[in-house]
Amino acid sequence: MMRYAIKRIAVGLLTIWFIATATFFAMHAVPGDPLADDKATTPEIRAALLQYYGLDQPVLTQYTRFLGNMLRGDFGISFTQKNRSVNDIIRAHFPVSALLGCLALLISVVGAVLFGVLAARHHKRWPDYWIMLAVIAGISVPGFVFAALAQWLALKIDQHLGNIIPVAGWGTFRHMLLPATMLGLGTMAYLTRLLRSSMLDVQQAAYINTARAKRLSSTRLFFVHELKNTVLPVLALLGPTIATITTGGFVVETVFAIPGLGRYFVQAIQQLDYTVIMGTTVFYGSFLVLMVIVVDLLYALADPRIRLQDMR
Amino acid sequence: MTTPPDSTLFEPLLACPSAATDGEDVVGNLWRDVWQDVSHNPSALAGLLLIVLLVFFCSLGDKLWQKNPAEFDLAQISQMPNTGLKTTVIYPATQTVAEQRRNPVKKLQLLQPATTESVQLIWPAAAHNSFRVYRHELKPSGIYDLGMPLNKTTDNFYNDQLQLENRRYFYSVARLDAHGNIDAYDTLAVDVAHATPLAILQQAGIHVTDNQPASVLLPAHPLGTDKLGRDVLARLIAGGKTSMLIGFSAPLVFVFFGAMYGAIAGYRGGRIDTVMMAFADFVIALPFLLFMMLLRIALGMGPGSNSLMALLVALVLLGWPNTARLVRAQVLQLRSMAYIDAARLQGASGQYIVMKHLLPNVLPGILVTLSFAIPSAIFTEAFLSFIGLGVVPPATSWGSMCNDGLSSFLIHPHELLFPAFFISITVMAFNLFGDGLRDALDVKMREART
Amino acid sequence: MEDRGEFSHNPLMNWLAQQCARLSRLRLSSRGSRLLLRMLLRMLSRLLPRLLSHAVLYAALLAANTSMTGRAIADSAVDADTHTVRLALTTEPPDLDSLTSTDSVSFFILLHTQEGLLTYTTDAQGNNDALTGGVAESWQMDGTTVRFTLRDNARWCDGKPVTARDFLFAWQTALNPSTASRYAFILYPLKNAEKIHRGQLPASALGVFVEDDRHLRIELEQPTAYFASLTTFPTYFPVREDFYRAQQGRYGADADKLLCNGAFRLTEWTHGASLTLQRNPGYWHANSVSLQAIHIPHITNDPNTLFNLFQSGDIALAELSQDTVRLALQQRLYIQDFGNGMLTYLEFNHREGKALRNQHLRRAISLVINRQELVNKVIAAPGTHATTRFFPAWLAAIADNNLSPASGADIVAARHALQQAKQELGVDKIPPLVMLVYDSPSVIRQAEYLQRVLQENLGVTMIIDKQIFKQKLAKLAAGDFDLSLSAWGPDYNDPMTFADLLGSANENNHGQYRNPAYDALLQQAAALPAGAERNTLFGRLQQIIDEDVAVIPLTEPGIVYVQDKSLQDVRRHRFGGDPDLRFTRIVPDAGKTP
User: Looking at beta carbons, which residues of chain B come within 8 Å of C303?
Assistant: First the structure.
């Protein structure tokens, strides 16, 4: 087990190195000048800026310097946000994305359980049809259309019923509700579909018939037997959902003016902000690698076959 | 415990009709079963039908609706769906006369009948007066509700040409005091008639007969026009070609490549497998947007190219590892199956095992992957258009049409709704079909159903 | 593969999804998965109390209606009781170090928190570009010598007086090549400034002399007509040496890393999310500042979001787009306009070997563009006006009536010019021209329009090269284009801010237009004091541009905006920070009675 863990960690570190290296060279290969500005840059200013950011060195020197700094956890100073370190940017904006994502996850799971069970309980009757229709819509309408419509709806509510749901912005819990719902919508649709079929499977299972034959009360039957067994297999699927949601909110962050990391990453790429691109890529990459290692280890722990195979 | 073999239980091998021993027949049966399942599944069938219709729409639509998707019609900007508007023809001579005549007037009035090309206002003015001209869509209720400011002038005349529609406007002219504040204002309700200068009509290829008719019929736009007066239906067809091209070709290539890669890794196993899968993992972790931009330039996506190729290549280069992982996992699982061992013991070659046993078993999974990769690719294209990395004009796609229409969807909803509807329908069709396919291929579920 | 498209580019998502899908395939009956579940439950039980406490905290915050930072924030756009206003910014201020700042959002903040020697005010005619004393209470200009007397009650917000030394330090630092200030050139009227910036002279050679704490003498390179206007510009703002050095290269990076001397203090800056400006009681003119605070709780550049925020009463000021202006009309909102002083124009690549070096070809393109149509039908936003002038109309001093008004296209003349161009170039067909644009919906629409116009009327093919902003700039600098749709905004109140743009030496002259006659006139105008003679020179420059078709002026863009009716005296400026809320008052009943 120990050997396996060490091997996984080694591969993980190698992956981070690979991501960092590939991104570094790709970024330097993209034409375009990170130092360009509306106002022209004189050769003197250019030289000073090149020196400030260490771009006057040969690419290989820059690369080794970058790797050295990366090991110390220092990603340097942003190009577009003067005097601000990349670490500060990640520290300030990742929690926003993560918080929004967690809320979105909560909303999507609660909603999915509610609708999935409702649809299954009323299988082949109108709640089922309406919910499945909504699920299909949730899966097939682009996120930015949903977000724009939702904002318009919030505005109408605001105008007719008073300020209940803020139209955009970030700060209080109320501000999070709408964007989190929009972010969770796709996932909710996907999970609802899964839960519905899982519930249908459970309803046909032999032990439910047994329980019914034992004249269990219907509430007890539902909560203890059906619901529990429906939700359990789906719980394991929460993983991909967490990932989808904590990192993929660029559209929602833009429409609802939320200072999350997704927005910064896209902006950084559009602005060729070298240090922020490198910092966020390596950060995301490391987060990912960490998750993979954890998942792999749990997997190995849980499944003796894998463990044995690896020992061999 | 074992019962002796009873000869009545066995039949001669030769007598068995088309025995399912040959790999091809197994596959043939599989597809027959799948088709049977899909054709009895209404939602899957609907999905398939929609896919066929969409492909038809994109490939043959431009033969049926022969309109240039890039051609402007500045007389019909952002028009709602219509079957041909009637427009008054403006002949060149009439316009210049109006500007020369500027007799003093008693109150705010029109100098010429108002048309969608120009509304000419004239009002009484004394020396050193300055005015602001406003235009409103509702009747003004006070100096804070005069509408949108058009211009500030010391003249007694204003010619408004700013994107006029065939409707009633309320023009207000406000006199300003020495501090620039509104002193007094006068409002005039103006009904604007649709009119088009002759030159624009001729440019649009509309034949105006020699006897100078007062009005002509403009070409129909069944799904309306966009912000440059281009036909939305024609653009949907042209954009659909782009979206479908991306949706079909990229997933086809990367799923094929990914499957090959995964099959090789899974089949060879050992060190080769480790190295190959480690590389696939690296590729998955690369930042898509950055490499998308890099490829745009690396592939010579300079001026003039519509960047479609770059998008395709980026999708292929970065999309394959998912399929590779999936296929490898399946191959690994299959490889340890007893019947593979049996085949190998009977002396089957590697090629035979791959072709006759592994591939038929992996293929269903690949197909399902493909049916979900297609809508995913279409969504990715829409997302890239959303952040401005989409196709370059004059080329268009559903995603970029959505992005263009998004800003004005409360005023001209058709510019967003139609492309969004097509994206949704496509994604939905593939999802429904993919679901059906998956159900049909899932042996466990089939057993449960039969 | 089930994920929604906009997430699928995300590597983390993809990978994690697979790992977890693997997990999910475990059979739940196996011993291992029971172990797994137990672990998950244990993790949950540890996290749950924390999550719950967070939920309670949020509920408390919700009840108290406070921000996440814990401070109470009024949630109406304008609060007459507390005298506070809420606004939105389009981006996070990229750089609040006045020495290196270049963008309009940072200038907006700096206008409120810092003050230079002079500042803009509104005169009796409602002109917002009138100059008045800022830190300086009086000044005399005498040829190349300017003397400023500083107020003795001008203070930094830590209570120390603003001294002449703070200006000298700021200017010397901005001119230091290692500071890499892009706006250092705006200090060039100071004696020796350019040489210091190029590293040819030491900083001490700067023609700025501190006579005592309150007296500053400035020697100019040559008489500069617009120097007074320059001193309002952020690069000219004072910076105090001890504070600047104490920040160790992070000056202006956070709220507590900026030392204010203006009407407001930056008291809170949550990066990417919100800023708060509080009234500065130590400001010398504080008794005419009536706003207690300006809250900036939103940062977004989506025009629909901004307008929605305005409509929901969340912010007091919002710029309108072509689309939102229609919604504003339907809501009967009070719409105002403001000419922001900019110019949009088609820039040509005049480099050797480029087709557009040919003057006739440039003229043909100029003649074929119907600017009225472009403005009214393609841009279709109120506030924008067609122009053929390189010097925008607000520079009234150089009114030149020789120019043809911005009217329709002259296709016959254009085809004639094209014919001449073809003869001179010795080609039957003009090779495809590349037009560089950056990715903005309006700009792309204009480019598509021009593409079509050139194709239909001249048979000239134009290729649109759509690039992200930084790549567009890089391609412009490298000369890798034929035409470019560009825009220029004024830095100071003088025609020179435009005229300079086409000088041979100017780095922003991306097309490398070179005309010795133009350069000579430019030199001449630079040395002249303001007046009729100088204005005539600008008139001649305009003529040269017109005859040469050096660039094609297209529009003078303007903006329309909605503003809360109870706000009085929000000043709009063409240069040096806009909008200006320093002296804004809240009059609750305004707007109710016409």
Answer: 407
Cα within 13 Å of Cα(B18), Cβ side: 6
Nearest of B403, B409, B56, B52 to residue B224 by alpha carbon: B409
Q: Which chain B residue is nearest to residue C7, measuring alpha carbons?
A: B380
Phi first, then psi: give them for residue B402, nearest 5 degrees: -60, -45
Nearest to B149 among C124, C336, C565 (CB): C336
What pLDDT score was predicted for residue C292? 93
Contacts (Cβ under 8 Å, ≥6 apart) of C451: B393, B394, C435, C462, C464
For B33-71, how does the pLDDT look when each residue is reduced to its tens digit (9 = 90+)? 777 777 788 888 888 899 899 888 888 888 888 788 877
Residues C124 and C401: their CA atoms lie apart, in Å, by 29
Partners of chain C (3+ Cβ pairs below 8 A): A, B
pLDDT number for residue C349:
93
Residue C87 pLDDT > 60, yes or no? yes
- Please report residues of B whose CB lies closer than 8 A to that of A23: 286-287, 290
CB contact under 8 A, B428 and A136: yes
Per-residue three-class SS string for C381-437: CCCCEECCCCCCCCCHHHCCCCCCCCCCCCHHHHHHHHHHHHHHHCCCCCCCEEEEE
Is the interface score ipTM higher than 0.90? no
* Residue B92: exposure state from Cβ atoms within 10 A (0-12, 13-18, ≥19): exposed
In this model, does residue B410 exceed pLDDT 90?
no
| Average pLDDT score, chain A | 77
DSSP SS3 for B395: coil
**8 A C-beta contact, residue C563 and residue C310:** no
Q: Give the residues across from B169 on adjacent strands.
A: B190
- The radius of gyration computed from the CA coordinates of chain A, to the nearest angstrom, equals 25
| CA pair distance A169, A175, nearest whole angstrom | 6
Taking the CA atoms of C163, C166, C167 and C169 in sequence, report the sign of the dihedral they define. positive
Strands (E), B64-209: 86-90, 109-110, 119-122, 130-136, 148-153, 157-160, 168-176, 182-191, 195-197
How far apart are the C-alpha atoms of A30 and B299, rounded to whole Å? 12
**pTM (predicted TM-score):** 0.81
SS3 C279: strand
Asked if the model's pLDDT at residue B16 lies above 70, the reply is no
Cβ separation B411–C323 shorter than 8 A: yes
CB A226 within 8 A of CB A203: yes
Map residue C488 onto helix, strand or coil: strand
C101 contacts in chain A (CB < 8 Å): 82
- Tens of pLDDT, residue by residue over A214-225, are 777 777 777 767
CA torsion sign for B409, B414, B420, B424 is positive
DSSP helix/strand/coil, A20: helix
- Whether residue A295 and residue C16 make contact (CB cut-off 8 A), yes or no, is yes
Confidence of residue C348 (pLDDT cuts 50, 70, 90): very high
Q: Which residue has the tokens 């088609």?
A: C346
Which conformational region is residue C70 in: left (phi greater than 0), alpha (psi within -120 to 50 degrees), or beta? Answer: left
**DSSP conformational letter for C259:** -
Mean pLDDT, residues B299-322 taken together: 75
Closest by alpha carbon to C186, among C259, C116, C94? C116
Of the candidates C6, C8, C377, the beta carbon closest to that of B163 is on C377
Reduced to 3 states (helix: H, G, I; strand: E, B; else coil), residue C53 is: helix
Across residues B262-275, what is the average pLDDT?
83
Q: C92 to chain A: nearest residue by CA?
A: A81
Q: Which of A78, A156, A277, A298 to mutate to test the interface with C (most CBs of C within 10 A)?
A: A298
Q: Is C292 at the interface with chain A, CB within 8 A?
A: no
